[in-house]
Write a structure and sequence with these properties.
about 400 residues; alpha/beta; seven-stranded parallel β-sheet; six-stranded parallel β-sheet; 13 strands; about 15% strand
Length: about 400
Amino acid sequence: MWSRYTHDALILAQCTDASAEDLARRQQYPERLAPVVSDRVCNWYLPVFDNPFYGGLMTIFRLADHMQREFGIASRFLICGPTDTSRTRESIGSTFASLSGSSVIALDTPTATANVPFADYSVATLWTTAYVLLGVKNAGLKFYLVQDFEPLFYPAGSTYAQAELTYRFGFYGIANTQSLKDIYENTYGGRAVVLDPCIDTSIFYPDESLRPGSPRRLFYYARPGVPRNCFELAANALKLLKERRGDAIEIVCAGAQWQPAEYGLHGVVRSIGMLPYAQTGDLYRSCHAGLALMMTKHPSYLPFEMMGCGAIVVANQNDANTWLLRDRINSLVSPPTATCLAENLDFALSDAPELEAIRAAALETIRGRHGDWARSLDVVCRFMLAVGGDEIFTAPVG
């Protein structure tokens, strides 16, 4: 493991670099913005990706779609690495039809990066892409879509330091939770707006008729090899739960391709790999409870989606996520031990009458603040206009 980290960290130390001059350079040029909002363009700096329907990527495309439909701001997608631009354009267009005609450029050579076309707005979407944007000089306003505290994706070391430095680049922040906004502003001195995470209520909604009476069904978002999702703790908790409940429960895993037998989970869980985005709602509705563990500063979209589908969410204690997950009120929040997780899961799968109150409170949490993407995205767009000196529109253009 550590030899692999060193290998990757050496590459990142070389290719994601900045000089003192880069760090001192002025980053914001509101005077460069086109006078008419609908004439403006936004450059999105994305990592290479395969599946556009991951939660973080979908948030990017939702925001780009909203900017284009409501304010007339066109999008250009710059992929920071080698990619088949035709396939990537088709992939992006599959998320939102409004983006199907957007330009896609591969920044896979120094020449391509040096010749990035001008954009009124430029948005970094991952810490590595922030280094690319830092070096871009022909830009109006620069933003950083922060969807987690990404330094914690790594051990305290070289890559952690490189990721953390990006929060001091002088970009305006678009923070995908209040906790991340507080970090960006209070720890790193930036200025940010909250992009409240929401769910697509046409996909994620409750339907109790899909949940079987027996066996009780548990969903687990399982990604071996991704430390922040605590797979090792979960695996041992699920073994304890299966020993206790036997055939009275069914444990379904999704989120990555892996074989349960490789981790001592044969006969304990059923792994179905990756599901199409539109089918995930049906899966969550069929489950009595869902396990979603996250040790970084964002709860991920899984708890939102499972709560919206009527599944009892079991999550780990994480001070950064208490604004969403409240123990015994709208979820079950467990200490991070296998035994404690197993006990909470056992309770979530029981017939205890108080579970219905938790399930109802979870649905109200989602409906009250996290079920309206248009409202959330509009707040961000108006922030982007405001920091450029535009008056806040009383109604969207068009």
